[in-house]
Amino acid sequence: MAENENGTERSEEATPERLKKSKEKGQVARSKELATASVLISAAFSFLVFGDRLAYELSLLMKASFTFERASIFNPEQMWLDLSRSVSGLGMPMFTILLMLFVISILGSSLLGGVLFSTKAMMPKWSRLSPAAGLKRMLGMQAWVELLKSILKVLVVVGVAWWIFGATFDHILKLSVTPLPGSVFEALDMITWMFIFLCCSLLVIVAVDVPYQIHKHSQELKMTKQEVKDEFRNSEGKPEVKQRIRQLQYEASQRKMMGDVPDADVIVTNPTHYSVALKYEQNGNRAPYVVAKGVDFMALKIREVAREYEVPVMQSPPLCRAIYHTTEIDGEIPEELFASVAQVLAYIYQLEQFRKGRSSRPKTLPDDLNIPEGFQYND
Prior knowledge:
Helix content: 55-70%
Low-confidence stretches: none
Oligomer: single chain
Order of helices and strands: EEHHHHHHHHHHHEEEHEHH
Structural class: alpha+beta
Largest sheet: 4 strands, mixed
């Protein structure tokens, strides 16, 4: 496995953040063999497509260059006229071939690693001027791999060339007895196909180099376990900072919750450990819902705020525990508790009417509100 400068083993795969930073630095997997093979194969097929046109234009140029009248020798303008005629004839196919090769060279380089522009990769690295670093690169593993690839390229190209020469040897000998100009065009066609086969032989090198470059890049980006922990800590934040953020968020939510207590219709208590603040909007589309709840100290604070704003406080331990354990803040109470909560709200309404002198004093709210068996909590 790869090791860093301190000798620590790099056993962990690169994280997305590490991959992102490597791209920003221009460190992506690249294959020079893929780019070279793309350009050479494209050049071979471009000559196959435009070769006839080039040969025809060259024949016209040669004919015009060696066939002229005596008077044209003493005419300076004739030279520029012949030059412009040659450029106009050869310019279009040559421009098309060169443009295609330019595009293929860019695409071939970006097939592995994609198109990437990085200013950091363009910055000079003074460490490369170190003789020790240069010697290490010359004698390192990468240098040996490049040497093996060069030997493999020579063997593959020479082998394919030998096979082509053996397959076409008889045909080459027959060209000597083939009449002109057919032998010339046939020889050019044969050379073009030989060039195509030789360029395609480089695909063997590409098939070896591309997986190697991907593996090599992956190994170079591997991280130690400590680097993964440090990156996670930097990206997620320090534990004490996250704890402080969670504490501030909790305090903010508690302040908001306590600010909603004065709007509640009733506070149902345990009576000491739990407190639940309920609200019901008669003209709304919601069932009774919880605006605040808490245990111990928070339950005491809810009751204090309720007394300050004259919100009715009712003791019903079974109902209070059932609502606390089944309903979140701003959540509607379960359908199974509708009947019990309706009794509480009806009692509060009758109590308000009694205080205003509009009705007689209501009966005391029963301790047992028939809480369903699945909603009974004894804590």
